[in-house]
Amino acid sequence: MAFSAVLTAADSAFYALSRHAAERLRAESNSKSLSAILDETETHAQSVKFWRIWFETASAVAVALLVSQWLENVWLIGMISTIAMAALGFVLVSVSPRRYGRSNAQKVVQSTATLVRFLRLILGPITTWLASIAKALSPGGVDEDGYLGKERLRDLVDRASEGEDLDEESAELISSVIDLEETSVRSVMVPRTDMVVLDADHSFHSAMDLFIASGFSRIPLIGEDTDDIQGIIYLKDLIREIHGLQQAENLAQLARKVRFVPESKSAADLMQELQQESIHLAIVIDEYGGTAGLVTLEDLLEEIVGEIDDEYDRSRTELIQNPDGSLFAVAAASIDDIADHFDMHIEEEDVDTVGGLLSKALESVPVLGSTADVHGLRLTVVALAGRRNRIGKIHVEHLETDASDHIENDEDSSHE
Predict the structure, then answer these.
(1) What SMART domains does UniProt report for this protein, alphabetically (predicted)?
(2) Confidence class of residue 292 from pLDDT cuts 50, 70 and 90?
């Protein structure tokens, strides 16, 4: 029972030890046994489990033999032995050692390293076979290095959150990091329909106007269409050019090399690559080689920490009435609500929001200052919102002349 308790503590300690702590322990320790265990954590963990079960079985047999010295009834011997082993095993082998191993993982791993290594060597290749069988029967439990797998880690996070050992925000953050590896770039990207792009034949000053209006610091440069991405224009490069610090003749010469990625790529892998290459923006291509959208390092970060609001964002109230009768509306405001406010009828089959109505009228992505007259309303983008600089606030003005004509036409129709 004592051996079983020690091995239970060691088993818990191995799985509670993080990768970072394990590598730090290896660097600080000169123990060859510990180094060998950390190199093959899974096989050593399986050998610990094997020997723990072996010692527990041996203890059960010993208790049964001891009880048989006083009793002759086989069923009574079995019942008493089972009750005794269940009680002793629960307290002395299962609960206390496991809790101690989790709470003192580094200390337990160091103190039991020699014993664990010795037990592993006794089993020889049997341990490898056991590890292979265990991995086949329980996929996702642990990874190749013996550390917790994703599914097991998710389960631990959920349990910790339910038990109030981990607050909800921290649990969501950890879950987001775990899920990022299974998230495709396609689900994170800005779709091509929402991309703000520069035509290659634009002048430097017109390009600067678009940078100011959009609020972006990097904009893709296109040739014939959005599928013809020629590079990425950086605002800081454009400023240097306008001030004569660079000698580019056109935007194409000023553009930086573009990074293309498939839409099926893992968001976690892309985030690591962008960090290593010091790149902040990549163009996402579909299976046919066309432009599917773009993704930035900030987009990937938001998958972990959630949406990052701009410091200049204001109230999210959908409709705000001005003294002159006009409205300030968020892009997601319903066109039905706006129509009700102005006591008019707006019929659009394929759009439901004022932002969508403006985009349809412009046939492009609206930027700061974009304006259009539609259905007797003048829609003007007066503010951007969020890190992606999407439409934040739209000024909605009722055009009295259009409204009067509309009323007159209705009256004429009614007289007829």
Answers:
(1) CBS (SM00116), CorC_HlyC (SM01091)
(2) very high
Tokens representing residue 393 in the block:
């606030």
Residue 31 to residue 21: CA distance in whole angstroms: 15
Residue 407 confidence (pLDDT) above 50: no
Q: In terms of domains, do 161 and 110 share one? A: no
Calpha distance 234→257 (Å, rounded): 11
Place of tokens 């929001």: 353
Q: What is the pTM assigned to this prediction? A: 0.52
Residue whose C-alpha is closest to residue 292's, from 229, 377, 212, 230? 229
Taking residues 349-360, report their average pLDDT. 85
Q: Are 190 and 170 found together in one domain?
A: no
> DSSP labels for 2-47?
HHHHHHHHHHHHHHHS-HHHHHHHHHH---HHHHHHHHTHHHHHHH
Beta strands in 121-180 (DSSP E): none
Are 134 and 7 within one domain?
yes
- Integer angstrom CA distances of residue 128 from 4, 9, 11, 44: 21, 22, 17, 9
Give yes or no: residues 174 and 190 share one domain. Answer: no
Which three-class secondary structure string do you get for 87-126?
HHHHHHHHHHHHHHHHHCHHHHHHHHHHHHHHHHHHHCHH
What CATH number is associated with residue 279? 3.10.580.10
Q: What is the pLDDT of residues 179-199, one digit of tens each?
A: 787 888 998 898 887 788 899
The pLDDT, as a whole number, for residue 408 is 39
Q: How far apart are CA 391 and CA 281, in angstroms?
A: 21
* Pair 66, 169 in one domain: no
According to the model, what pLDDT value does residue 238 have? 92
The pLDDT, as a whole number, for residue 390 is 72
Total tally of structural domains belonging to the chain:
4
Tell me the C-alpha distance between 30 and 44, whole Å: 19
Which of 37-51, 68-82, 252-266, 401-415 comes out lowest in average pLDDT? 401-415
Residues 278 and 170 in one domain: no
Distance from C-alpha of 42 to C-alpha of 112, rounded to nearest angstrom: 16
312 occurs within a structural domain: no
Q: Which helix (H) or strand (E) holds 81?
A: helix 74-88
Its domain, for residue 63, covers 2-138
With a CB cutoff of 8 Å and minimum separation 6, the contacts of 134 are 46, 141
HSE-CB for 63 with a 13 A CA cutoff? 21
